[in-house]
Amino acid sequence: MTGWISVLAFEFHTVEVQPGEEVTLQCSNLSRLYVRLSWFRMTNRKGKISSMFSPESNATFHEGFQNSKFNMTSNTSVLFLEIKQVDSSDSGLYFCGEDSSEKLIVYGATNLKVQEGRSQNPSTMILGSLTVFLLLVIIGLIVKIRKFYTAEDDRQNPQRSEGRILSNPTHQNKNQKACTTERAGAKCCVRCYEI
C-alpha cells in the first residue's frame, strides 16, 4: 500500500492471555461514513487480517488469516476482532482503522501477549491429577493382593511358622517360648518349649 498513515484519537491497550484461550480485541469505531474498516497485525511486516464496509456487512478475511480462527464484527461504536485458540504465534501488535488505497487512518492498537508456560491448560492439570490418583489406587491394590496371598500361603503351609519365637504376654520379662507346628494327617498340634 502506498500513501500515508494518520492517527485519529489513538487508543492503545495491552492484553495478556494463556495459550488455548479465546480473546476479543476491540477499538472505537470512529467512522461516520461507510468506509472500509480493517484489522491489521504488525509482525515483521504489516498484514491485513480482515475488512468490512459496514456493521451489517460480512467481513472479508485476507491471505493467511482463516475465517475459522478469526472473526471480525462491528457495531456503530466499536470494532471487534475475536481470535480463537490463541498460541504464541498470535502474539503481536494489532491495530484497526479506515483503509483506502491512498491512506490508512488508525483508530487504535492492542499489543497481544500470549504467555507461554506460565500456567498449564486446565485439561492437562485434570489429566495429571487423575493419573496420580489412579497410580495410588493401583499401588494400594497391589499391597492388598500381596497381603491376601501371604495370608493364604500361611494358612496352606503352616510349617512356615515353625520356629517362631513367641513371647508370653503375661510374663514378658521372664521366659520366652519357641513353638513348632506338627501335622499328623488331618490333625495339627503346636508344641512349645521354653528357651
Automatic annotation (TrEMBL):
Compositional bias segments (type: Polar residues): 167-177
Protein's cellular compartments: Cell membrane
Entry keyword annotation includes Transmembrane: yes
Residue span(s) of domain Ig-like: 5-96
Gene3D superfamilies, per database record: Immunoglobulins (2.60.40.10)
SUPFAM superfamilies: Immunoglobulin (SSF48726)
GO biological process annotation, one example: immune system process
Major location (coarse): membrane
Pfam families for this protein: V-set
InterPro entries: Ig-like_dom, Ig-like_dom_sf, Ig-like_fold, Ig_sub, Ig_V-set, TCR_complex_component
Bilayer-spanning residue ranges: 125-143
Coiled-coil residue windows: none
Region (Disordered): 156-177
Gene Ontology annotations for the cellular component aspect, listed alphabetically: plasma membrane
Keyword entries, A-Z: Cell membrane, Disulfide bond, Glycoprotein, Immunity, Membrane, Signal, Transmembrane, Transmembrane helix
Cross-referenced PANTHER family: T CELL RECEPTOR ALPHA VARIABLE 4, T-CELL RECEPTOR ALPHA CHAIN V REGION-RELATED
Protein name: Ig-like domain-containing protein
Organism: Oreochromis aureus
Gene name linked to the record: LOC120438850
